[in-house]
UniProtKB/TrEMBL annotation:
Residues 19-79 form the HTH tetR-type domain. It is found in: Nucleus. One of its GO terms (cellular component) is nucleus. Its main location: nucleus. PROSITE patterns: HTH_TETR_1, HTH_TETR_2. InterPro entries: DNA-bd_HTH_TetR-type_CS, Homeodomain-like_sf, HTH_TetR, Tet_transcr_reg_TetR-rel_C_sf, TetR_C. It comes from Diploscapter pachys. This is HTH tetR-type domain-containing protein. GO terms for molecular function: DNA binding. Keywords: DNA-binding, Transcription, Transcription regulation. The lineage of its organism: Eukaryota, Metazoa, Ecdysozoa, Nematoda, Chromadorea. It holds the Pfam family TetR_N.
Length: 207
């Protein structure tokens, strides 16, 4: 799960006409990265899915890494809306439940790649993709910091027990999310993941 505090993608390019819609091409690129990860995706995979030539890809999006960053922005804007909604929930348990159930719905959505782009993209990341890995880590840290702040408020308000380690609780929640993503990507059924969510919420330190 990555930072969700990114700007929304713009509309199809205006001005000098292109022979393709950049929004449609970017959405296709996102699906490829989400399915294969950053390193597992080749330029041939991208151009075939996007329906464009390699020169057109470079002209519209830059290189593969620049395209990945744009696809990641789109992913956060469209697929991680539940994270923004979670931070507005009135209780800490509501925050956790909104995140877990939102992730479950996203990771098992029919017609979409399974799992989480952030986990899929970084797990096999080698030295040649260090900058991509660094960007993913930075985005994840930003989201975790927002959750820590929200849970600290809950603790101050008495919504979480005074003895709760907020950093540990946030790390635990992220470990659940990453575990769900790995299992979803490995073919776990939705009902299996739902039981994991239900069990985790039953163990949550507040109501």
């Amino acid at each position: 799960m990555e930072s969700v505090l990114t700007a929304s993608p713009g509309p199809c390019a205006k001005g000098r006409p292109r022979e393709f819609c950049t929004d449609t091409a970017l959405a296709a690129a996102l699906r490829v990265f989400w399915s294969k990860g950053y390193e597992g995706t080749s330029l041939a995979d991208l151009t075939e899915a996007m329906g464009i030539t390699r020169p057109s890809l470079y002209a519209a999006f830059g290189n593969k890494e620049a395209l990945f960053h744009k696809a990641l922005d789109l992913y956060e804007q469209e697929k991680l809306e539940y994270m923004r909604a979670a931070l507005e929930q009135p209780t800490a348990r509501g925050v956790a439940e909104t995140i877990l159930r939102g992730a479950l719905a996203m990771q098992t959505s029919p017609g979409e790649p399974k799992g989480c782009l952030g986990v899929i993209a970084t797990m096999p990341c080698g030295s040649e993709a260090d900058s991509v890995r660094g960007e993913m880590i930075a985005r994840r840290a930003s989201s975790q910091a927002a959750l820590v702040e929200r849970f600290e408020r809950a603790k101050a308000d008495g919504d979480l027990p005074a003895a709760v380690d907020i950093s540990g609780l946030t790390s635990y929640l992220y470990a659940l999310l990453q575990g769900m993503a790995v299992q979803a990507g490995s073919g776990a059924r939705r009902d299996e993941l739902e039981r994991m969510v239900d069990t985790s919420l039953a163990m949550w330190p507040s109501r």
